[in-house]
Amino acid sequence: MVQGDGLLIATPTGSTAYNLACGGSIVHSDCQVILITPIAPHSLSFRPLIVPASSKIMIKVPQSARS
């Protein structure tokens, strides 16, 4: 489980805007990848990830975090 203020999912086209502002990488637009970047993570061990575009990403919000 990862804790933080949010999670940013981006494509290479969007990698130079919000993703970069959150500490993510700049990725060439020809790359077929998905960028996953934590927004203000509560742990320094959670770093930005770059995964293949064919990856399935599942995001779960804990019941206690829902309003």
Number of strands: 3
At the first level of CATH, the class is Mainly Beta
List low-confidence stretches.
none
Order of helices and strands: EHEE
The name CATH uses for the topology is Tumour Suppressor Smad4
Strand order in space, largest sheet: 1-2-3
Number of domains: 1
What is the CATH-assigned architecture? Sandwich
Total DSSP helices: 1
Q: Tell me the structural class.
A: mainly beta
Strand fraction band? 25-35%
Profile the largest sheet.
Answer: 3 strands, antiparallel
Helix content: under 10%
The CATH superfamily is known as Probable inorganic polyphosphate/atp-NAD kinase, domain 2
Determine the mean pLDDT: 87
Categorize the overall geometry: globular
Rg calculated over all Cα atoms? 12 Å
How far apart are the first and last residues' alpha carbons, in Å?
A: 19 Å
